[in-house]
Every structure is written in C-alpha cells, then in structure tokens.
Give the backbone structure.
Amino acid sequence: RVRFEHLLDALFGENLQDFPYIADRTSPAAETWQNRGGNCISLAIMTLALTEPLGLKAHIQEVQIPNTWQRRGEMNMLYRHINVIVQRPARTMGSGVDASGEVVIDFDPDLNSPRQGGVPLTRQRVLAMFYSNLAVEAMVRNEHVVAYANFHAAAAQDPSFESIWINLAHFYRTQADAWAAEQSLQLALQLNPDSYAALTGMYQLLNQSGRTEAAAAYEQKL
C-alpha cells in the first residue's frame, strides 16, 4: 500500500497536476520526468519505469476512443490513446483484508472514454508506437533523416504495427518515392485489410499517379 501511494504521490502530487498531458511531445522516461509533462505514451512509459523499482506489477494498454483527427502541417493525424494498469497490493482494513485490484493511471483529463477494458500491449508494441511517434514529429519538423531512422527503429521492434507502414508511406510520398509508398501501404493492408488510413492513402496515391481504375477499387472499399 505504501509503495502504491508513493507512486501516486510521485506522479500527481498534492494538486494532481505534476505531469500535464502535452499531446505533441514524445520523449523518453528520464526526459519526460525532467520536463514534467508529455503525451500519453511518454507518460505511460515513465510510469512503467517508476513501478519497477517499487516492486509493483503494471502493464500498458491501448483504450478505444472515438476517431480523433488533427491537421499538423501536411499531415492528417489519427490519435491513439494508452494508459497504465497497476496492480494495487492488498491492504488490511480493520478486521478484514481488502483484495488487491487493478488501478488505471491515465493522464489525459479531457478524454471521454472508458479507462478500462483496453488491449494489453507488449513492450515491443509500446516501443514501436514510441519510435513511430518520434518519426512523425520529426516529419512535421522536416527532419527527414531523423524521421527515417525512427521509422526503422519502430519496424525493428514490432513490424506487425500497421501504423508504422502507413506513416512511412506518407514519408515516402514527401520524398517523391511513389513506389516505396505503395509498398508500405500494401504491407499495412496485409496487416489490416480494413484500415481506413491505409485504404485512403492507397486511393490517393493511385489517383494522383493516374491509375484511376485501380484507385476506383479502393474507393469502392472505402
């Protein structure tokens, strides 16, 4: 119980505002701690790092939220959301014992979605999401070498994460490499044939290259 309360105090403090949610800031755990803020994946990784030395069991999960799109530069970004599930140790209350239970730690104060019932993520998937985030943020800053390096790191962690290939396809389109963009989108569609973002990307790519008949097939799927 003391260890769990120490974790909550470290994260939220007395005013519950020690680590504000900043949607466009992805950073490693130590940097997130130093900056006192970050997005959901940065704060979740930091929280997981804090639970381990305290001997607490925890995992990161992805929760379902309504599709939320934001325009950043030339990119339309679809947001995902993750949080942390911590196993709260049992505690004695009077003559009885309170059974241990799962506690959700979530940093987004404005998100109107279920906090539980999410999909547990492997560490490889979390790292793939982390590096993919860094790559997209580098693209927005026009740092193409940094973006490509982070896409490569994301794919090395979990090549089954479809968003890597969707985002990488957009990267290739900015580099005027339509062939590589199409190959990336094909990989994304192999992983998820119903991916709205991948289908849209393929339709746009084919239509812009004059392959209207092939584009029409993807338009029909959409």
Residues 123-140 form the longest helix (18 residues). Confidence is low (pLDDT under 50) at residues 94-99. Strands lie at 58-63, 69-72, 75-78, 81-88, 91-93, 96-98, 101-105, 119-120.
